[in-house]
Amino acid sequence: MSDALPSPATRWIPPRGDVLLAAGLLLSGILSSWLGLVAGFYQGEAAGLGTALVYSVALSAPLAFRRRFPTLCLVIVAAVFYAGGSLRVSDLYVGQIALFIAFYGVGAWVRDRRRAVVIRALVTVGMFVWLLATLYLDTADPDPDGPSMAGAFSPFAAYALIQILVNMAFFAGAWYMGDRAYASALQRGALEERTAELEREREVTAAQAVALDRVRIARELHDVVAHHVSAMGVQAGAARAVIEKDPDAARTALAGVETSARSALHELRQLLETLRTPDGGSTEGSTLSVEDLHDLVAYADENGLPTTYAVIGDPRPLPDVVQVNLYRIAQEALTNARRHAGPDARADVRLRFERDGVELEITNTGRVATPMRPGLGLVGMRERAAASGGTLEAGPRVRGGFRVRVHVPLPPAPPAAPRDDAAVTTGAIR
Known about the structure:
Layout: H1 16-39, H2 49-60, H3 70-86, H4 94-109, H5 113-140, H6 155-242, H7 247-276, H8 293-302, E1 307-312, H9 320-340, E2 347-354, E3 357-364, H10 376-387, E4 391-396, E5 402-409, E6 423-429
C-alpha cells in the first residue's frame, strides 16, 4: 500500500512527468558512464558498459514511481548508488542527482513524518559510514597516483574534508527542500479545503438570503393585501346594505372600494419596483416612513374605524428600516382592529419619541377575537420588531379591546432645549 501524501498521481500508472524524468536520467546515466569510461575514471578498475547499463536502469526506473512509493524508491536508489560506487561504475554525477531526487521525494510525499525522518536518517548515516569506510581503505592501501598524504594538512586530508562537506550539504539541502515541499502541500491542501468550505458557505448564505427575501416579500404582500382587502370588504358590505335605500351612499362606498383597490395596486407596484431596483432602493419615493402614519390613520378613519393619532415627545430621525417596520406594524394592527373589533370599535395610535428609543402603541376598543390564536399578522409584527432590534407586546386590554406596543431602542438623543409644550398631539381625524 502506498505511503505517499495523497496527490493526483496516487495510482499504479506513474505520471507522465515522472516517466520522462526516469527516461532522461536513464539516458544521462548511460552517457555519463560511457564518457567516464572513455575519460579513464577509476583507470583499469572501472566497470564495463554492461554493468553501467544495468546500473543506469536500476537507478532511474524507481524514480518513475517516486510519488507513489517514495520510501521504496529511496531505498532502491540508495542501494544501487552504493553498489555502483563499490563496483567502480564510471558515472560520477547522474547517480548523485537520482539520489537527491529520491531523498527529496521522501520528505515531500511521505505522510508518516516519523517514517520519513527515520528512513532519511538511515540513508544519511549509511552514506557517511560508506564514505568513511572508503576513505579508511584508501588510507590503508593508498593509491600511488592518488593525493599525497604527507604533511600536517595533506592533499588527501583536503580531499576527504571536501567529500564530507559536500555530502553534508547534499543531504541537508535535500532534507530541507523535501520538508518545505511537504509543508507547502499541506498549506495548499488546507487552502483548497478552506476555499471549498467558503464556497459551500457562500451557497448556503445565498440560499438563506433568498429565503429571507421571500419572507420579506410575503410579509409585505400580506400587509398590503390584508389592509386594503379588509377595507374593501367593509365598504362593499356597506354599499350592499344601502344600495336600495340610499344609492348615493352606495356609490360613495363603491368609490371607496375603487380607491382602496387603486391604493393596493399602487403599493404592490411600488413593492415590485423596489425588488427590481439593483441596489434594493425604490423608485418614485416609495419608501414608507413614520410621517405616513397620519395618512394611514386618516384612511382607517374614513373606512369605518374612528382613529386618533398622537405624536409624543420631540421627533428625531429614525433609520429607514425602523420607519418602514413601524408603519407596517401600525397598518397590520389597524387592519386587525377593523376586522375583529366590531362595528363600534375605536382606535388610538400613539408614537412616542423617548431619549433612548421610540415606541409605537396601537390600541382599540371593542371585542377581542376568540380563541386568541397568533396568526400571520402577529407573527409578521413580531418579526418586524425583531428586525428593527426592538420588542413587541400584543394582547387584550383589561378594560376591553386590544393593544399592540412596539419599542425600538435607539442611541440616546442629545438633551433638548427647554420648552413649554412637552408633546405635540393631534386630535381625532374624522
